[in-house]
Design goal:
This protein is mainly alpha-helical. The chain has a single domain, classed as Winged helix-like DNA-binding domain superfamily/Winged helix DNA-binding domain (Arc Repressor Mutant, subunit A), CATH 1.10.10.10. A hairpin with a 5-residue loop joins strand 1 and strand 2. Helix 2 runs antiparallel to helix 8, helix 3 crosses helix 6 and helix 4 crosses helix 5. The two termini are 29 Å apart. Bound molecules: calcium ion (CA). The site of calcium ion has 5 residues, from helix 3.
Length: 159
């Protein structure tokens, strides 16, 4: 039993050392951003949605963010001002919300984390919708684990 555990630990450490440049980007930058800033679970949900709207090529406005997250606009305004305080977004004229460089990096990681966990849970549960569980657990999983799930899924998908 002990040998089995040691084996798993070794595999985990080796896995960390064999990360590609791209995975280092998600792991180190995403992790550092999460640690340095007091980014709450709720702020993560907002930033993830802002990043999704942004990458869909849509202008990011408070109304669109509120609608997509099923919250009232004043709640969105308040949370966006928290993101602003953390230097993740900035507001331009006419109410458009811009992602800062840090906001783009963390937003990219949050979407990567969400999509990786969703793919993983759908795979093991043989389902096509695990959104509720993903929303509940995604905030508590660390970047190394997300990265290892990604590698596992990439291997499984290549079979
Ligand atoms: Ca999410």
């Amino acid at each position: 039993m002990y040998a089995g555990m040691a084996q798993r630990v070794t595999t985990c450490i080796v896995g960390e050392h064999h990360m590609t440049e791209n995975s280092k980007f998600y792991t180190l930058k995403g992790y550092a951003l999460q640690e340095c800033n007091a980014v709450t679970s709720s702020m993560e949900d907002y930033l993830e949605m802002i990043y999704r709207i942004h990458t869909a090529g849509q202008p990011v406005r408070v109304g669109a963010v509120a609608e997509n997250l099923n919250v009232k606009p004043p709640s969105a305004t308040k949370m966006i001002s928290n993101l602003k305080k953390q230097g993740l977004v900035s507001s331009e004229k006419y109410g458009y919300i811009q992602l800062t460089a840090s906001g783009l990096e963390l937003g990219k990681y949050l979407v990567f984390r969400h999509d990786t966990l969703h793919q993983f849970l759908c795979y093991i549960n043989r389902s096509d919708n695990e959104l509720e569980q993903v929303e509940k657990i995604e905030h508590f999983i660390n970047p190394g684990t997300v990265q290892n799930i990604r590698k596992l899924m990439d291997r499984l998908m290549a079979l």
